[in-house]
Amino acid sequence: MWSVRMRASRFENGKEIHVSGAEGIFEQNQIGRVLRRLLIRAFDHKRGKAQRIVFTVEEIVEPIHEVKVLRVSTLEFNSPKEAKEAVKRKLESIGVSKRAIFAAFEVLESCSLRGASLIDYLTGERLERDRERGIRVSRLQMEQGLRKRLLRQFRRLSAEPQRVIEALTLASKVASFDGVVAELCISDNPDYTTGYISSREFGYLRITNIKEHGDSRGGRVFFVKGSINLDEIYSYLERTPVIVK
Ligand code: COA
User: Fold this and answer.
1) Ligand 1 pocket member 114 (CB < 6 A)
2) What is the mean pLDDT of residues 17-27?
3) Protein residue closest via CA to atom 19 of ligand 1
């Protein structure tokens, strides 16, 4: 199997700015088709015109882990205020402290990392090694049969079912790491106002109207146990190949 990854960037005052990224794990005979699809995607992104596109095609030599997909449900709200209150209640119900939830919203509303923030679910302390980079989730793929079935199902939920599939794949990998208690995600796309919270306990909960239209702030926060081994979580989320089934 092969890890195929694409990242597109543009330049502003000599500085490279990330535009989009996408990836998957494929058989060798699928690579040509996948590269073509990723190229179309790199050129088509709404967050600005790509000026550099980097493809990585890498054989996976280590064992590929299999994890279970989270179950999906949607909670609908009329305003960000209502949505955030519900998110807080849900996270508190599984033991995430008020302090940690406050710290998470502060990160999501004030800074943009190149990855996700790691927050101690009790103390609210930020644990990622580099506060500008954060931790990323890579080397992941949803099993093809499941992907097709869910795509049909999600077409009823969202105008962009592919986006839901990708986020669900990522959230399922994140939730499968033992020290992760929950995840909170708000898209940084100003037109996409549905976020999610996820955990092994309550699955993947889509949250409508989590932010106002036009707001380009967003990101991901992983609430984790203070006892996690940082080397292990970085290695698992960033480098261990995972198929979600
Ligand atoms: N946001 C911002 N910058 C990013 C980025 C992202 N999501 N992914 C990569 N970059 C930039 C960074 O500058 C990075 O350098 P850094 O490690 O110092 O931050 C540089 O590209 C190289 O990153 P690398 O991880 O080596 O890229 P890659 O070629 O292996 O591609 C992606 C990785 C882009 C495919 C992967 O990050 C991705 O986006 N996968 C899709 C799933 C997803 O959304 N994951 C991110 C969730 S946190």
Assistant:
1) yes
2) 94
3) 133
* 136 Cα–ligand 1 center, Å: 7
Amino acid at 123: T
Average pLDDT over residues 123-134: 96
Ligand 1 in reach of 183 Cβ (< 6 A)? no
Do you know the residue count of the chain?
245
Residue range 176-191, pLDDT digits in tens = 999 999 999 999 888 8
Please tell me the distance from the alpha carbon of residue 51 to that of residue 16, in angstroms, as a whole number: 9
Mutate to test the pocket of ligand 1, among 7, 38, 189 (most ligand atoms within 8 A of CB): 7
Q: Is 129 in the pocket of ligand 1 (CB under 6 A)?
A: no
Look at residue 159 in the predicted model and tell me its pLDDT. Answer: 85
160: pLDDT confidence band, cut at 50, 70 and 90?
confident
Task: State both tokens at 18.
Answer: 């990330």
Sheet of strand 52-59, all strands in order from the earlier edge strand to the far edge: 15-26, 2-12, 52-59
* 54 Cα nearest atom in ligand 1: 29
Q: Could you tell me if 107 and 117 are in contact, meaning their C-beta atoms sit under 8 angstroms apart?
A: yes
Contact partners, residue 133, CB within 8 Å, separation at least 6 = 113, 114, 115
2 confidence band (pLDDT: 50, 70, 90): very high
For residue 47, pLDDT over 80 is answered with no
